[in-house]
Sequence to fold (147 residues):
Amino acid sequence: MPRTDLSNIELNPEFLQALRVMQDTDRHVFVTGRAGTGKSTLLQYFRANTIKNIAVLAPTGVAAVNIKGQTVHSFFGFRPNITAERAKRIRPRDKDIYKNLEAVVIDEISMVRADLLDCVDIFLRRFGPTRSRPFGGVQMIFIGDLY
Fold:
């Protein structure tokens, strides 16, 4: 992700509304828009200013490098052939990472298959803060375009 001077960005009403939901609630969020609408800037701004414990992820290595994050697979310790059954048997090295997680941001969400999100849900219900809630009670922030 190219470095953006965050001090000069335009904080328009839509940007502020998305930021408010991301920062001040635990609601799941889907941020979408065509290229150039500020999705990457919003991600950078949120990461730089949030007090939440977050993970910034992407579906591919190239996309992860672009956002200075990790792949979904590497963060959760998933192998490429992950299935729901396999996700139930994973044992992470450091469970505290997931127990203390408040939000997961996934960029390029249109490239993430539904079965992979099912695996993330299963994993976070096992190791996240709240077993009884979807995604273990971790706020999911999906960013991407469907164009």
